[in-house]
Amino acid sequence: MKRRQFIYRTSMTTAGMLLGGGILSARSNPQRYKLTLLHTNDVHSRLDPFPMDGTRLQGLGGVARRAALVRKIRREEPNVLLVDAGDMLQGTPYFNLFGGEPEFTSMSAMGYDAGVLGNHDFDGGLELLDRQWHLLDFPILNANYDVRDTVLDGRVGDRIILERGPIRIGLFGVGIELAGLVPEKLYGGVRYQDPVVVATRMARQLKREGCHLVICLSHLGYRYDSERISDVQLAQSSEDIDIIIGGHTHTFLDQPDVVSNRLGEPVYIGQVGWAGVTLGRMDIWFEKNYRSKCITCSPELIADTFD
Amino acid sequence: MVPQARSWFILLILTSGLGGCRMTWHEATHQYGQYQMDASLESDSALSAYLLPFRERLDQTMNDTIARVARKLTLDKPESTLGNLLADLVLDEANRVSDQPVDLAVLNYGGVRRNELAAGPLRVGMVYELMPFDNQITIVELDAGGLTELLDQIAGQDGWPVSRSVRMQILEGRATAVLINNQPIESERRYRVAMPDYIAHGGDRMTFLRDFPLQYTNVLIRDAILQYSRDQQALGMPVDAVLDGRIISSQE
Question: Does residue A96 sit at the B interface (CB-CB below 8 Å)?
Answer without folding.
Answer: yes
